Amino acid sequence: MPPIAVRTSGVRPVTEQRTSAQGTTGGRATVARVYDFLLGGEQNFAADREAARQLLQAVPEAADMALSARLFLRRAVQTLAEDGIKQFLDLGSGIPTQGNVHEIAQAVDPAIRVVYVDIDPVAVVASNQILIGNPTCRAIEGDFTRPDLILDALAGSHLSTVIDLEQPTAVLYCSVLQQVADDQVDDVVAPIRDLLVPGSAMVISHLSATITDSFGQSALDEGRSVYRTQAATEITLRTDEQLTALFGDLALIEPGLVPLNHWRPELSEPDPYATAPTPSPVRGAVGIRY
């Protein structure tokens, strides 16, 4: 199972968080911090490292899957920035690491604006520490499964100068929608997706239902159990047809919905699955509203 940005039960208001995370023990593991550990980061705690250890026991490729997901995100952001999109909304953004969305996008155009949203306060604190001195980017604490609260926050005075959904915007759902049950996912995606104006984009990476072909049902069950018991997170797999439907009337750009290592691989360092005997068990795509 690849790591995914954190979601917990309950609803928190969307807030901007700039206080220090130092001194906290971390409590229960979060998937954002497990992801950080698998990518070699330092914004994680003992509970996260133990969860990562258990995950790697169940699915030894978990670290490769994390890196593959991160490289896809970077390639997608670079593509959209080069296509002229000036605003990026990263939902379930997780712990910042090298090659963040704003770093990739602003390397193309320094005027690009980015808002990161995550429910983990550690992720928000770490993001805002990186963003000090960058007036066109913000990180806020919020639940990506509550698009109503996110839309309210974007209309607020402190974010309306960063993201204006009446202008073309790229919305990123990278390795997070697998945390949402089938009977809820449309309610999570549609409210923001359907507001996107022509020229906007949506990026999705998501565990494929074909993952059992790669690892077998036993390893899949063990990986799911780690997320359930250590991070209070349930995992939902989806077919290619289900993932394509999440894009609504957005048109998928080439090469469509494909294993992550097949999505424009020439735009980044080699994907861990580039020479593997089987492709990545995670799918990715970018849709555009024309």
From TrEMBL:
An individual GO BP term: methylation
Is Phosphoprotein found in the keyword set?
no
Keyword Transferase in annotation: yes
- In Swiss-Prot or TrEMBL terms, this protein is called SAM-dependent methyltransferase
UniProt keyword annotations, A-Z: Methyltransferase, Transferase
Which lineage ranks, top first, belong to the organism behind this chain? Answer: Bacteria, Bacillati, Actinomycetota, Actinomycetes, Micromonosporales
Question: Coiled-coil annotation: which residues?
Answer: none
Q: Report residue spans for region: Disordered.
A: 1-25
UniProt GO molecular function = methyltransferase activity
InterPro entries per UniProt: SAM-dependent_MTases_sf, SAM_dep_MeTrfase_SAV2177_type
Pfam families attached to this UniProt entry? Methyltransf_19
